[in-house]
Amino acid sequence: MADEIAERFLYYPDPIPPDMPPPPWASGATEVWLDTADGIRIHGLWWPGPSDRPAVLFLHGNAQEVYSWSLVHRELAPLECAMLLIDYRGYGKSGGVPREEGLYLDGRAALDWLAGERFATGDIIVFGKSLGGAVACDICRGLGPKALILESTFTSLASVARHLFPFIRGYAPEVDAYNSLEKLKEIDCPVMVIHGEVDALIPVEEGLALFEAAGEPKELFLVEGAGHNDVSIAAGPEYGRRIRAWLDSI
Fold first, then answer.
1. What's the whole-number average pLDDT of the chain?
2. What angle do CA 184, 186, 190 make, to 5 degrees?
3. Mean pLDDT over residues 33-62, rounded?
4. Domain segments of the chain: what residues?
5. Which residues neighbour 109 within 8 Å (Cβ) at sequence distance 6 or greater?
6. Per DSSP, what are the bridge partners of residue 111?
7. For residue 119, what are the CA distances in angstroms to 55, 110, 127, 188?
8. 174, 97, 187, 91: which is closest to 136 by C-alpha?
9. Which of 44, 107, 136, 198 is within CB 3.0–4.6 Å of 128 for a Cys-Cys bond?
């Protein structure tokens, strides 16, 4: 697990007032609440979709909250899928304090919620962005979802510590902290890796290593000129089209 230093500097949650409604750009979404195995109440947004299409569980990065992240629903509109976007514990309206094992419990609670909406495991696409990719890798172990999509994700916290925490000299996280590279060995589903070619925060080599470790079938989508936070912008309309085409191919 991530130690105290990582927990202090890795998470940047933004609170949302409990009575604040979803913003206009989250049109079509309803607020939902999930209960985790350890008793934390998690807040999320839910967009229903066509009955014959899968659902996307979107796990966001280490900053902001679901209201800010809700723009991703528009970016992924070509998928024509339902979408569940959750805030980890400590983020937005969710209770608790963020920590590694807790985020995994949050992700599993989201899967349970989708099951309650009658989505079979094989009809769920788990999509993780940055830190969310590490959460996605953990909860997909032995699960067998329709697909796993990792965007701008790192192999392990230890591998990218000098990029994430350049102000802490000599700091080395535990080897198993958010170790997605090892967890990919336990994942048996199609995997797509998306990464910006000029990502200065999580170098593209991290994405390439994840792709190499993933089993078949797999797809690599490198976005020319994209950094860490502008992958979909740099890719433009090709972003949604490329992901949809790959999903349809599997």
1. 94
2. 65
3. 98
4. 4-249
5. 34, 35, 36, 37, 42
6. none
7. 7, 11, 16, 19
8. 187
9. 136
The Cα-based distances of 63 to 56, 59, 70, 92, 161 in angstroms read 20, 11, 13, 10, 17
* Closest C-alpha to 67, from 26, 31, 32: 26
Tens-digit pLDDT profile for residues 227-250: 999 999 999 999 999 999 999 999
**Active site residue ranges:** 130, 199, 228
Cβ neighbours of residue 25 under 8 Å, at least 6 residues apart? 70, 71, 74
Contacts of 170 (CB under 8 A, 6+ apart): none
The one-character DSSP state at 29 is: -
The residue assigned the tokens 């979408």 is: 83
DSSP-derived pairing of the beta strands 55-59 and 41-47: unpaired
Taking Cα atoms as reference points, which of 202, 201, 159, 203 lies closest to residue 181? 159
- Cβ pair 32, 57 in contact under 8 A: no
Among 7-16, 23-32, 182-191, where is mean pLDDT lowest? Answer: 7-16
Q: Which residue has the tokens 């800010």?
A: 68
pTM to 2 decimal places: 0.95
DSSP state letters, 119-163? --GGGEEEEEETHHHHHHHHHTTTT--SEEEEES--S-TTTTHHH
Question: How many helices (DSSP H) and strands (DSSP E) are in the chain?
Answer: 10, 10
Task: Name residues whose C-beta falls within 8 Å of residue 238's C-beta, 6 or more positions apart in sequence.
Answer: none
Residues in the chain: 250
Average of pLDDT values for 79-90? 98
CATH topology of domain 4-249: Rossmann fold (3.40.50)
